[in-house]
C-alpha cells in the first residue's frame, strides 16, 4: 500500500531508539508501561516522528489528550507568550489572570444555567479526589459510588473506585473504605435470550437493588459516572440509564459527578459527553485534552457545592499553573474557531462506517461502538460465545505499529481497540490510518491462525 503520511523503515526499535531503551531500562521502573518501542522526536497535528526518522499516524492521542492535535500553533504561541511573562508565581501565593479567565470560560460552557465555580489541579485523579472531597464536605456524608468497569485514576481513592484489578489494583491494597460499585449496562454482553429493553430493565432493577443491599443512599456523598466508559471499553450507556442514576441522586441528595476526563473537550461531538444524555451534573471533572498536553485538571460545579470549603482546604503547589491555563484558553479558542464539536461528529461517522465494514469482513470483530469520535471495536474468538480475544488485539497493535499507526487497547479483558485520534486529523490522514488498521487486522488474523 502506498502511504503518504505513515513511514516505518526497518524494524522497531531503530538504532537510536535501542540506545534510549537501554537507558530507559536502567533509569525507569518497569511499572511504567510503554506502547510502541520507540521515542518521539517531533510531533504536529496527528503525526509523530521518532528519533530514527519513522513517522506514525496517531490514533491514540496520548490516551485522549490531544484532541486539538500535537503542537497546535495557537497552543505553542500561547505558551511562548506565557513563558516570557511568568512561569509560576503559585496561585496560593499570588494570583494570576489566566486561572480566572479559564475558570470563567469553563463555567460558561458547562451544562446548566446555574451559578458555577471552577478549581484547578494537575491530573485527572486529583480532580476526581477533590470532587469527592467537595461532595463529602457539602453533604456531610462519606460514601462514594462508582460503576463496574469504570476507571478514575491510580491514587488510593481513585484506584479503589476503578474496577480493573490488573494492572491497576493488584497487590496495591488495602483500599479506601466506603467505596461501592454499582452495575453499569454493557449491551453487547447481555444474555442472548434477553432483548435490549429487557436488559435495560434488568440493569435498572439491579441499580435499585444496589441501593438496598449494598449502599444506603442516605450515606452516599457522591455518585461518579463516566458518560462513556473509557478504560472500561468505550461502553456507551443508554440515556434512560443515565437519567435514572441522576434521578436517584436528586431524590436522595447525592452529588452527581460526571467524570469527563476522557470524554470531554469535543471528543464526543459536545464539549462534555454528558450533554448527550440531557443531564446537568452537580460537579464535572476535566483533564486530558483540556490543555493539549500540559498537566492540568479541574472541577467545575454548582456554586453552592463548590463554595462550602474554607480557604486552604483545596488546592496544591502546581495546581492550575499559568502555562497550563494559557494552553487551556488556547484549546477552547481552537474548539470554537475550528468547529471541533461538529468535526468530531463527522470524523466519528467516517470511522464508525469503516469499522462496520471491517465487522462484515472479519468474524473476529464482535462489536463496534462509539459516541462522536470516541470509537472502538471489540475482538472475540467466537461471535456466539463472545469469548474475548486479547491476543489478537495485541497482534493488531503490533502489526499497526510496524506500519506506522499508533493504537491502544482497552476493556476489562484487554480485547477492545479504542480510537482516539486528534480531532484535527485530516480526512486523508484518517483514511490512511484506517487503511493501515485494516491491513494490520488482516495480518493479525492470519498470524493468529498460523499459531493455532
TrEMBL record:
**Swiss-Prot/TrEMBL cofactor(s):** pyridoxal 5'-phosphate
Could you tell me the Gene Ontology terms of the biological process aspect for this record?
gamma-aminobutyric acid metabolic process
E.C. number: 2.6.1.19, 2.6.1.22
Task: Please give the Pfam families that the UniProt record associates with this protein.
Answer: Aminotran_3 (PF00202)
Q: The organism's lineage?
A: Bacteria, Bacillati, Bacillota, Bacilli, Bacillales
The pathway where this protein functions is:
Amino-acid degradation; 4-aminobutanoate degradation
Q: What is this protein called?
A: 4-aminobutyrate aminotransferase
Q: What SUPFAM superfamilies does this protein's entry cite?
A: PLP-dependent transferases
Q: Which GO terms describe its molecular function?
A: (S)-3-amino-2-methylpropionate transaminase activity; 4-aminobutyrate:2-oxoglutarate transaminase activity; 5-aminovalerate transaminase activity; identical protein binding; pyridoxal phosphate binding
What family does the Swiss-Prot or TrEMBL record give for this protein? Belongs to the class-III pyridoxal-phosphate-dependent aminotransferase family.
Question: What keyword terms does UniProt attach to this protein?
Answer: Aminotransferase, Pyridoxal phosphate, Transferase
| Catalysed conversion reaction | 4-aminobutanoate + 2-oxoglutarate = succinate semialdehyde + L-glutamate; (S)-3-amino-2-methylpropanoate + 2-oxoglutarate = 2-methyl-3-oxopropanoate + L-glutamate
Native organism is Bacillus thermotolerans (Quasibacillus thermotolerans)
* InterPro entries named among the record's database cross-references: 4NH2But_aminotransferase_bac (IPR004632), Aminotrans_3 (IPR005814), Aminotrans_3_PPA_site (IPR049704), Class-III_PLP-dep_AT (IPR050103), PyrdxlP-dep_Trfase (IPR015424), PyrdxlP-dep_Trfase_major (IPR015421), PyrdxlP-dep_Trfase_small (IPR015422)
